[in-house]
Amino acid sequence: xxxxxxxxxxxxxxxxxxxxxxxxxxxxxxxxxxxxxxxxxxxxxxxxxxxxxxxxxxxxxxxxxxxxxxxxxxxxxxxxxxxxxxxxxxxxxxxxxxxxxxxxxxxxxxx
Length: 111
Fold this sequence. Notes:
The protein is mostly helical. The chain has one domain. 77% of the residues lie in helices and 0% in strands. Helix 2 runs antiparallel to helix 3, helix 3 packs antiparallel against helix 4 and helix 4 packs antiparallel against helix 5. It starts with 6 loop residues before the first helix and ends with a helix. InterPro entries: HPT_dom_sf.
């Protein structure tokens, strides 16, 4: 199973492989950093900074077809209502994003 889908990227870029490679490089650099920030904000219950991290993560994950929509929605609900737990969602989000990054690195020979 692939943990990403580049259909939207290809539609947006129109098969410009150099630009797609650059987008993948940016994704592989920024998404793990943003995920680390989100993990910290959730652990510290810093709702406003968690919202900011989600705001950065969500469009990248959607563009790259990473299947975590439900988890992102649950974390957004946590930010809004502050009365639910999201440990399982954060754990799943971390696992799926890690697998997506590994898959992208392997498929596009990124180091």
